Amino acid sequence: MERLLWIHCSMVNIRIEVLVRIQVLELRGQVIKSLQTLLRQVSSLLDSLYKEMNG
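Now predict its structure.
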């Protein structure tokens, strides 16, 4: 009985750990996407500044 309870607890722990890891990965993905968007905006801003300075 105790062993079954232990197995159940460890399975729940593993499941929680997996869910947390998935959330962390999703969060990291969102952060990377927003960083890429930011970089694109910055580079287009720099492009237009460069064009204005040389125009």
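The mean pLDDT is 92.
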